Amino acid sequence: MIRKHSATLHGHRTSFSLEDEFWAELKTIATARSMPLAALISEIDDHRPPDSNLSSALRLHVLSWLKAAASEA
């Protein structure tokens, strides 16, 4: 199920939609990196291409993280 989430990035509120599974993985990544979830989302937002949307950037980050973990195993 896709749910709408909100975050404050650099002092501005923004919203994005993610499937529950991607949301759970983002939380796992933030925990693994010992950082707040909002900081992870902000970092991803800062590095996404200007013509992409935040929801897609978050999904691609999760995919990249999982692929990297799989290649290390």
What average pLDDT do the residues reach? 94
* Spatial ordering of strands, largest sheet: 1-2
Spans of at least 5 consecutive residues whose pLDDT stays below 50 are none
Structural class of the helices, strands and pairings? alpha+beta
What is the first-to-last residue Cα distance?
29 Å
CA gyration radius, whole angstroms: 12 Å
Task: Report the biggest beta sheet as strand number plus sense, adding barrel if it closes.
Answer: 2 strands, antiparallel
User: How many alpha or pi helices?
Assistant: 3
C-alpha geometry: globular
Query: How many strand elements?
Result: 2
Quick overview of this protein structure:
Helices cover 59% and strands 22% of the residues.
Write the layout of secondary structure elements.
Blueprint: E1 2-9, E2 12-19, H1 20-32, H2 37-47, H3 54-72
Antiparallel strand pairs: 1-2
Helix pairs in contact: 1-2, 1-3
Core attributes:
73 residues, alpha+beta, two-stranded antiparallel sheet, 3 helices, 22% strand, globular
Task: Write up this protein.
There is one protein chain. The protein is an alpha+beta fold and 73 residues long. It is built from three helices and two strands; from the N terminus they run ββααα. A two-stranded antiparallel sheet has the order 1-2. A hairpin with a 2-residue loop joins β1 and β2 (12-19). α1 packs across α2 (37-47) and α1 crosses α3. It is globular, with a radius of gyration of 12 Å.
